[in-house]
Design a protein that fits this description.
39% of the residues lie in helices and 17% in strands. It starts with 5 loop residues before the first strand and ends with a helix. It is globular. With 327 residues, it is α/β, with parallel strands linked by helices. The protein folds into 2 domains: 148 residues, Response regulator (Rossmann fold), CATH 3.40.50; 152 residues, Rossmann fold (3-Layer(aba) Sandwich).
């Protein structure tokens, strides 16, 4: 590879869970080839966002209509439904001068992109589709260590063992019901009562009533830390400092990120039919011994799930081959 920096755009609607998939893949790729990574957050109204990507593209066929600069990148990585039309607009303009990568199942012909990176439990398949367990993420040993150090003044005095609890919420397939929320609270309180430190974080999908209940629960418990959403996010610190991790079963991202640490991972139940997620649960159980939480944080050891780096290596090879084919 040339020592000259290759321009790489990360394109998303700005939602953290969506952006981090594309950004994590770009950062892993940057370990293999010199990249200049810039993030681009798409700004569109609700009506435009609701339109099918093909209609969006017909209305905005030029990259500049999405707020993208006149000079395009050599690599563009997009994630989420709103990134489909901009990626196709970039490809139409720069053709062989750009390598486009879409993360997730686009639910359209994968041939619209140079490469698609999709979870194994989704349906996307094709000669230019790479599948992986879960989703790309930004978890690596260095980031976990830096996260733990950034909050060491708070975490170090907390007793061990420490358990990170990652709470999701309502999605297309899952719901945090009040009865299951009570089950989660009981499990957390039992861990705290037994002397564990509990480090909790919720997501944007967690219902307000559940967040309020967690806040009330933590008031008189010195060994339970619930991040209130203010100041720097301790998410990486929680993962880096934890001896075990509990994750609600609705989130592919959080399950995959937890398994990328190499630490014991357990699921907390959610209401709903798992459907395609059954395949994900089975893969994580086989690969990382992930199982429902029953009270103990003991689990068999496993190597950290490193799917993001595996996929990045495959992408680097494909980009190199594409460049050689142009010579």
């Amino acid at each position: 590879m040339s020592a000259q920096l290759t321009s790489c755009w990360v394109i998303s609607d700005g939602r953290r869970g969506i952006e981090n998939q594309a950004l994590g893949l770009a950062e892993a790729l940057a370990q293999l080839m010199p990249l200049n990574i810039t993030t681009h957050i798409l700004q569109s109204g609700k009506l435009f966002k609701a339109l099918p990507p093909s209609v969006q593209l017909s209305l905005k066929s030029k990259p500049k209509r999405y707020g993208l600069s006149q000079t395009g990148p050599q690599i563009a990585i997009g994630c989420g439904r709103q990134a489909i039309a901009p990626l196709r607009a970039l490809k139409a303009k720069y053709r062989a001068g750009i390598f486009t990568i879409y993360v997730q199942d686009p639910r359209i012909n994968p041939a619209h992109f140079d490469l698609v990176v999709s979870p194994e439990h989704d349906k996307a398949r094709g000669p230019n589709v790479l599948t992986m367990i879960g989703s790309p993420n930004r978890i690596n040993a260095e980031r976990l260590q830096q996260g733990a150090l950034a909050f060491s003044d708070i975490i170090d005095p907390m007793p061990m063992p420490r358990v990170a609890v990652l709470i999701g919420g309502t999605s297309k397939t899952h719901e945090l019901s009040e009865s299951l929320h009570t089950t989660h609270v009981q499990a957390i309180c039992k861990l705290a009562k037994d002397g564990h430190t509990v480090m909790m974080t919720t997501s944007r999908r967690t219902p307000d009533w559940a967040v309020s209940a967690y806040q009330e629960m933590t008031k008189d418990r010195r060994n339970v830390w619930l991040w209130d959403g203010k100041g720097e996010n301790p998410y990486f610190a929680f993962l880096g400092s934890a001896d075990a991790i509990l994750v609600t079963e609705d989130s592919t991202n959080m399950l995959t990120e937890a398994c990328a640490t190499g630490k014991p991972v357990f699921t907390l139940p959610m209401k709903g039919e798992p459907g395609k997620f059954t395949q994900l649960y089975e893969a994580l159980n086989t690969r990382c011994h992930v199982k429902p939480f029953t009270g103990s944080i003991d689990a068999a050891a496993y190597e950290p799930l490193n799917e993001t780096n595996r996929i990045a290596n495959l992408i680097e090879t494909k980009i190199t081959m594409a460049r050689l084919s142009k010579k």
